[in-house]
């Protein structure tokens, strides 16, 4: 018997490849045993509603086609449901950090074949106040960058848009006084930026959270303490090689629950989207959602702690 899939796609994502490929994608899914209906998103929050309805209607699979933003909404649409269908990913957006962490191919045909094989693994989901993320949460003056890049610019020039904006913002970087509290430690510091990572692929930095595993029930937390511009540039270059945790200005630890407060106004970035402000409690929901992955192995499962 054919399984029912709901394909939720962003028609403007990436270079609009999804819109062009839709008939071929549907044909491939149909041949693979998935009776697939579609929902084209029309604005912010639409993918969230569509995913929520798909879970309530008990679809066998939800396919998120687009970038990290579409996937973020799909996760938020099903995270609180008692019935959470597995998620398949077609990474056709400008940024596909999470798909990269899962080794999901960028090529739409290969990604479709992966979905048809329907091999799922459970992954952890982060809960922050009443929102959810699966890849990365962050805060501090540096993280404002991702939602200051206009979507048109992102579509046209991709990752370059972030770097251009990042250079513009460097003079504005300032430390913010924050308190971080968890079972492992309690600190009160002036912080440039904090990242709460679930995977090891963050903004194109493959080695930012070296020990991250998607199903160990733990967040990998990176805190960049107060530093000057020269120190910041040095740490950024060290991060490309995975050596940043040796720097005295960088704090790196693992925890399943973390509370962060500040007297300052600090916006939160969840999977590249604006996710409210501090104060916040970050909770790791272990193995909360199933994702379709490649059976041959997954980089983020491979170095999981014994």
UniProtKB/TrEMBL annotation:
Annotated signal sequence range: none
Molecular function as annotated in GO: ATP binding; ATP-dependent diacylglycerol kinase activity; metal ion binding
Cofactor: Mg(2+)
Keywords associated with the record: ATP-binding, Kinase, Lipid biosynthesis, Lipid metabolism, Magnesium, Metal-binding, Nucleotide-binding, Phospholipid biosynthesis, Phospholipid metabolism, Transferase
Domain DAGKc residues, every copy: 1-132
GO BP terms in the entry: phospholipid biosynthetic process
Tagged with keyword Lipid metabolism: yes
Family to which the UniProt record says this protein belongs: Belongs to the diacylglycerol/lipid kinase family.
Name listed for the protein in its UniProt record: Diacylglycerol kinase
Lineage of origin: Bacteria, Bacillati, Bacillota, Bacilli, Bacillales
């Amino acid at each position: 018997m054919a399984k029912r899939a709901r394909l939720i796609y962003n028609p403007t994502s990436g270079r609009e490849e999804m819109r062009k490929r839709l008939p071929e994608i549907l044909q491939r899914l149909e041949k693979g045993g998935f009776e697939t209906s579609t929902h084209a998103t029309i604005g912010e929050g639409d993918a969230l509603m569509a995913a929520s309805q798909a879970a309530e209607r008990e679809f066998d699979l939800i396919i998120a086609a687009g970038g990290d933003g579409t996937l973020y909404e799909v996760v938020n649409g099903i995270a609180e449901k008692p019935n959470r269908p597995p998620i398949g990913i077609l990474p056709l957006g400008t940024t596909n950090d999470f798909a990269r962490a899962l080794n999901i191919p960028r090529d739409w045909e290969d990604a479709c074949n992966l979905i048809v094989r329907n091999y799922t693994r459970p992954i952890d989901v982060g809960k922050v106040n009443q929102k959810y993320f699966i890849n990365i949460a962050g805060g501090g003056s540096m993280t404002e960058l991702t939602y200051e890049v206009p979507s048109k610019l992102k579509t046209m020039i991709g990752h370059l848009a972030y770097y251009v904006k990042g250079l513009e913002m460097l003079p504005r970087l300032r430390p913010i006084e924050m308190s971080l509290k968890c079972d492992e430690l309690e600190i009160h510091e002036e912080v440039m930026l904090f990242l709460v990572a679930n995977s090891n692929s963050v903004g194109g930095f493959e080695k930012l959270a070296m020990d991250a595993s998607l199903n160990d029930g733990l967040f990998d937390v990176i805190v960049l303490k107060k530093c000057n511009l020269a120190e910041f540039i040095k740490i950024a270059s060290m991060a490309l090689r995975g050596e940043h945790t040796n720097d005295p200005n960088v704090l790196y630890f693992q925890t399943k629950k973390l509370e962060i407060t500040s007297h300052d106004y600090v916006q939160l970035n969840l999977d590249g989207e604006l996710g409210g402000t501090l104060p916040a409690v970050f909770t790791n929901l272990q193995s909360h959602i199933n994702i379709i992955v490649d059976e041959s192995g997954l980089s983020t499962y491979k170095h999981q702690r014994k």
